[in-house]
Specification:
Elements lengths: L1 E9 L5 E9 L10 E6 L7 H15 L7 E5 L4 H6 L23 H13 L4 E6 L5 E10 L3 H8 L6 E5 L9 H7 L3 E8 L6 H17 L15 E2 L4 E6 L4 E5 L6 E2 L4 E7 L4 E7 L4 E7 L3 E2 L4 E7 L4
Parallel strand pairs: 3-4, 3-5, 5-8, 6-7, 7-9
Antiparallel strand pairs: 1-2, 2-4, 6-8, 6-15, 10-17, 11-13, 11-16, 12-15, 13-14, 15-17
Length: 314
């Protein structure tokens, strides 16, 4: 394993911001090796990717003979945000995933993402690992832009995630890492899983299996070990339904996350602790898979409680 600093900058407090990359490559060098880049930590309060990357680097370190391509790992893009457990880039209060592709002469966050783009550029595949925020829990899912789905969907099916959400482009996506890299020719997948500021061990292990499966299929690792990839639900064959809170109070879920539910099945209740009353009872607007569920119990009118993927009128 080789560790390289891809960006550094002196901070006002006399410290240095340093963003590093680790690289795994085979003992025998070649000019036509496939290259994959694994990126995480763009948002400082999203830590699920840290654990998944730890599992991956441990596996690669224990199986060096299996490496037959180049594997670049960027675990902490927003190192300052991770240090302070804040989503955005501290001091500037900006979302790093909204300033791509950045520029060499831009402001500090723009310089950082520019350096990342230049270093990742040329990779055949990139995986951008995110968590949800502290309010919601997401099952392992892949979100890909419809504009690039023809090239990225086959790769997404190998990543052992439960759900693939293909969405239409909106303006803000053009400033994200995934849109920038896809536009530059690197097939890039966005993984969302878990909850903010937490680590879900089973999700990390699930994604590890998926990443190894994808790398084996692409010839980036060579091993007799097999890695199963579950068949994901695909948003192209159904619809996503949203359930928002009709009132303010304490949300008490009635179902486990990732449950298969039926139309009109009880999702949970909004309760008032002061008076001991149930303000509202929430029911599923449609049957399907409950792929997003409220994790933080305090809610206000309009707060997102759940997302369900299923066929219409199921």
């Amino acid at each position: 394993m080789q560790v390289k600093e891809i960006f550094s900058s002196q901070l006002p407090v006399g410290e240095t911001l340093s963003i590093k990359r680790s690289r795994f490559e085979p003992f025998k060098k070649s000019d036509n090796l496939k290259r994959i880049s694994i990126v995480s930590g763009t948002h400082g309060d999203e830590l699920e990717g840290q654990y998944a990357i730890y599992l991956l680097t441990s596996w690669l370190s224990e199986n060096p003979d299996a490496i037959s391509g180049i594997i670049d790992i960027y675990p902490a893009v927003n190192a300052l945000g991770i240090d302070t457990i804040t989503r955005g880039f501290p001091l500037y209060e900006v979302d790093l995933n909204r300033v791509f592709p950045g520029g060499e002469d831009g402001f500090l966050p723009g310089q950082l993402v520019h350096a990342l783009v230049q270093d990742v550029k040329g990779s055949d595949i990139a995986i951008d690992i995110h968590s949800s925020n502290i309010f919601l829990r997401e099952i392992p899912q892949i979100r890909i832009n419809k504009e690039f789905s023809n090239s990225t969907l086959p790769l997404a099916k190998e990543l052992n995630c439960d759900f693939i959400w293909i969405h239409d482009a909106v303006t803000v996506l053009e400033a994200t890492f995934s849109h920038t890299m896809n536009s530059l020719g690197t097939k890039t997948l966005v993984v969302e899983m878990g909850v903010g500021m937490r680590v879900t061990k089973e999700y990390g292990k699930q994604l590890l299996c998926g990443m190894l499966n994808l790398m084996k299929k692409e010839g980036i690792i060579t091993t007799e070990k097999s890695f199963e990839a579950r068949e994901p639900f695909l948003s192209e064959v159904g619809e996503v339904f949203y359930l928002n809170s009709p009132s303010s109070g304490l949300f008490v879920p009635a179902l486990d996350h990732c449950a298969i539910i039926k139309k009109n099945e009880k999702i949970g209740t909004i309760v008032e602790p002061l008076t001991g009353t149930v303000l509202d009872t929430l029911y599923a607007p449609n049957g399907g898979i409950l792929f997003t569920l409220r994790e933080f119990p305090v809610v206000y009118e309009g707060s997102l409680l759940a997302r369900i993927f299923g066929e219409k009128d199921r």
